[in-house]
Amino acid sequence: QGGTLVVFRSDLVPHEVLDTRKERIAIVGWFLSSQISQSIEPTTTTTTTDAASDNGQQQQTQQNNSIAPTTLEALRALRDASPRLASRLKPAPPTSNNGLLGDDFFFPGMMSSSPTPKPEPIYQDNDPRYWKKIVTFDLDGHITTLSLGANRLKNIPMSQFLYKHALTMDLANTDLTVAQMIEIINGTTKLKHLHLGGNALGDDGVTQIVDQCKETILQLQSFDLRYNDIGVVGSALLADLLTIPASWTTLYLEGNKLQSEGAACLVEKGNLRELFLGQNQIGPEGAQGLAKNLGQVLKKLYLEGNQIGPVGAQAFIAALEEQKETSSLEKLYVDNNGIGKDFSVKLGEALNCATTVGGGSFFQE
């Protein structure tokens, strides 16, 4: 209904952006944060030992409410060496619920005042909840998620107890040296998701990491290398890894410099199911190369802001029609590519899912 404002948590509420029948104006934005929102609350379970059972008594066992001593020591050392990280771990002061427009903003139907927010709880640093903004723990008190994104950590020593058991590790925008990253990656034993975006690695940095951490990287499920100035050389190196059966299934490469040659080689072989290639200067020629090699595995392809134009759109339309029986592609995102309305509609029909093409494909920045 016109005049209605709807606000919801997009990461929690299932939703879909549908096509409109009239031109609309939208302002889209994201509040970006590398913080982990998952709370770590202690869980109490009751177990009965044989001796306690004989006596009719139960022994209380606390799970997930303690940190392994070596892990706690490593966390404290990292916090003390990084003022920015220490500041991040402090409880946030209460803030107004009235948003960016201020406490005096008011429109009809809005409550005249918002409830006073509760202050963030204060925990001691031996409580897992103290660290919940950057880590999660397993039942043995070891770190399983390490989120250090946007913290300047160059030349700060990092104990292996921080990352040895990690399943997910976020080192994006950390200013770590390539040598530090290699040491950390090779020190993991269970790593499945690795985020290295925004570290200006370039082709040389990616080459060093792949050459010296190959065994660990091949065990990943997802690999994030966004905004790293990676070009054709780095892309070819990653493409070679994709020919190995054990390679990852999700690859993030937005905001690099792959161009047409570097993009096309990534889909020729491999097990990729999701490939993110937004803003890579791919152009019509690169779109043609991608369209020829969609394969039988790739399900989602993101190509926003690559100037593929009508020529690139036509290449995908032809490929989807030709490979209708063999292609597994379900989602194709081509916003801000200057495709035009007619080709956008045809592309949606070929994909049998027009909502993934979207009105944004009409325009070009």
What would you say this structure looks like, in words?
The protein is of the alpha/beta class and 365 residues long. It contains eleven helices and eleven strands. It has helices spanning 50-55, 69-81, 83-89, 178-186, 202-212, 214-217, 232-242, 259-264, 283-292, 309-322, 341-351; strands spanning 43-47, 59-63, 135-137, 143-147, 168-170, 193-195, 222-224, 250-252, 274-276, 300-302, 331-333. The strands form two sheets. Strands 3-4-5-6-7-8-9-10-11 form a nine-stranded mixed β-sheet, with no helix packed on it. The longest helix has 14 residues, at 309-322.
Adjacency order of strands in the biggest sheet: 3-4-5-6-7-8-9-10-11
Structural class: alpha/beta
Number of helices: 11
E-strand count:
11
- The CA-CA distance between the termini, in Å, is 31 Å
Shape designation: globular
Low-confidence stretches: 33-63
Biggest sheet, in brief? 9 strands, mixed
Radius of gyration: 24 Å
- Beta-strand share of residues: 5-15%
Order of helices and strands: EHEHHEEEHEHHEHEHEHEHEH
Helix content percent band: 25-40%
For the residues shown, what is the average pLDDT? 82
Tell me briefly what this model is:
With 365 residues, this protein is α/β, with parallel strands linked by helices. The longest helix has 14 residues.
